[in-house]
């Protein structure tokens, strides 16, 4: 009888504990999503109910200052390293490294050379070194071998793979027997269409609606897989987009002899490598060539761009004003939308939303830097990050609680403050959680008491027999 009671008590105690812990959200699952070229204000161009659903039940940062140059590869690498381009080494989509004597080009797909990526260590590698697993669906750089590693699971880049198939892989990895805790998901639009038609075109409306539907599909699939409430979803992008025009073209051939330099990267930041002995000639010819073109010697680039101290940054950098386009000559490819401009321009800024157990609800913050995402990710994954240029303090207000994640080393630039103070929603949330756990516990205790009473009563009729059995030998004796 006593041992039965002990066993029942033990099972019930285990039950109570498991119920309590299953109610505790897992703060360590993170899915980072990038919709390439999703400008921060696309949210308001057409109805975007799924983006607004995430904002209502999660957090929203209005202005994210990304890094210069505001191009795809430099910014995607910043999101996963927390470093400025001069520190992570992916300084452009098209680069030349004079020491390696090698080129890196998105157009020629010569991006798989590990050496270009190894000035930094992306978060999937640090996550795996901490004993976790990562999965990447086409995120730039995740199919490149970096420091002898790939993500635990990844999809080799293939733009023809549908969004639905990418989501299916991510869900499969999060729900497998050895689940990932970090997922990275990338989609090419609205960047592609933004380039083709220009961001101010009415044709962008359906494109933004389509992205909103894709987000809706992702939410639906996460709910179906029972991941929606246990996973921290971060939706962001690498850059925005600005409207260009054939009326605003700067043609280098008008000012420079093309035999005197190599154009490593084109528009809107022309990376110019003068041929031997031609530096002064090229610089002087270009310096005052056009009122909408600012020309810098590498060492004179503004400090705020953090775009100077890397050998892959070319000796002369010419930056076009917002909406202006640099071409070597007019036979080169021109696009109606472009990005890459000064990262102080709002049109270059990406969207930023997040939802999940770690994040507050219906909370808006004015500003952050894209370098701040990295320490946030390290905190959520509970890993110690590498050195970076971000600040965890800039993003900690987004969180319901700042414990117990490990804080990576933070050089700590100027603090930015959220416009909204810690709100009532968080306390409401905590109250509901406390109430739920309390009621659950009371119910379990009541059940336990009734069960024990029932057990004791059901044992009573058996007692005489037991006594009889015990008494038997005595009688025999
Ligand atoms: Zn991009």
From TrEMBL:
> Region labeled Disordered — which residues?
403-423
Q: Which InterPro entries match?
A: Alkaline_phosphatase_core_sf (IPR017850), Phosphodiest/P_Trfase (IPR002591)
Q: Record the organism.
A: Mustela putorius furo (European domestic ferret)
Instruction: Please list the cofactors this protein needs.
Output: Zn(2+)
- Stated name of the protein: Ectonucleotide pyrophosphatase/phosphodiesterase 5
> CDD domains from the entry?
Enpp (cd16018)
Bilayer topology annotation? Single-pass membrane protein
Signal sequence, start to end = 1-22
Record key words, sorted: Glycoprotein, Hydrolase, Membrane, Metal-binding, Signal, Transmembrane, Transmembrane helix, Zinc
What's this protein's family per the entry? Belongs to the nucleotide pyrophosphatase/phosphodiesterase family.
Q: Enumerate the GO terms in the molecular function aspect.
A: NAD+ diphosphatase activity; zinc ion binding
Please list every transmembrane segment annotated in the UniProt record, as residue ranges: 431-452
Compartments where found:
Membrane
Its domain of life? Answer: Eukaryota
């Amino acid at each position: 009888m006593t041992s039965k009671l002990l066993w029942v008590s033990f099972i019930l105690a285990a039950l109570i504990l498991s119920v309590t812990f299953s109610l505790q959200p897992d703060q360590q699952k993170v899915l980072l999503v990038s919709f390439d070229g999703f400008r921060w204000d696309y949210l308001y161009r057409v109805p975007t109910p799924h983006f607004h659903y995430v904002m209502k039940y999660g957090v929203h940062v209005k202005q994210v200052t990304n890094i210069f140059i505001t191009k795809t590869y430099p910014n995607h690498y910043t999101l996963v390293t927390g470093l400025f381009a001069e520190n992570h080494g992916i300084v452009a989509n098209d680069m030349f490294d004079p020491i390696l004597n090698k080129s890196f080009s998105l157009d020629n797909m010569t991006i798989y050379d590990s050496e270009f990526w190894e000035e930094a260590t992306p978060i999937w590698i640090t996550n795996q070194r901490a004993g976790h697993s990562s999965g990447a669906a086409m995120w730039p750089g995740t199919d490149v071998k970096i420091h002898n590693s790939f993500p635990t699971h990844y999809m080799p880049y293939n733009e023809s793979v549908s969004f639905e198939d990418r989501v299916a892989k991510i869900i499969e990895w999060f729900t497998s027997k050895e689940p990932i805790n970090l997922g990275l998901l990338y989609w090419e639009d609205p960047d592609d269409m933004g380039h083709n038609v220009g961001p101010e075109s009415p044709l962008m409306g359906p494109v933004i609606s389509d992205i909103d539907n894709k987000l809706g599909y992702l939410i639906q699939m996460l709910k179906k897989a029972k991941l929606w409430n246990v996973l921290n979803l971060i939706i962001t992008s690498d850059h925005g987009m600005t409207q260009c025009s054939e009326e605003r073209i700067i043609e280098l051939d008008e000012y420079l002899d093309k035999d005197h330099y190599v154009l490593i990267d084109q528009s809107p930041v022309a990376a110019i490598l003068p041929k031997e002995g031609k530096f002064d000639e090229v610089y002087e010819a270009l310096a005052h060539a056009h009122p909408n073109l600012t020309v810098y010697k590498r060492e004179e680039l503004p400090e705020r761009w953090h775009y100077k101290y890397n050998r892959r940054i070319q000796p002369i950098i010419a930056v076009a004003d917002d909406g202006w386009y640099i071409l070597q000559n007019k036979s080169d490819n021109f696009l109606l939308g472009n990005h890459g401009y000064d990262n102080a321009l709002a049109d270059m800024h990406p969207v930023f939303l997040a939802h999940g157990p770690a994040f507050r609800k219906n909370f808006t913050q004015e500003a952050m830097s894209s370098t701040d995402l990295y320490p946030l990710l390290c905190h959520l994954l509970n890993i110690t990050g590498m050195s970076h240029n971000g600040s965890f303090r800039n993003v900690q207000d987004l969180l319901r609680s700042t414990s117990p994640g490990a804080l990576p080393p933070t050089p700590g630039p100027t603090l930015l403050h959220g416009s909204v103070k810690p709100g009532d929603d968080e306390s409401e949330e905590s109250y509901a959680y406390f109430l739920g756990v309390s009621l659950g516990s009371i119910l379990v205790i009541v059940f336990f008491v009734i069960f024990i009473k029932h057990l004791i009563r059901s044992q009573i009729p058996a007692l005489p027999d037991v006594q009889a059995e015990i008494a038997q030998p005595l009688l025999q004796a």
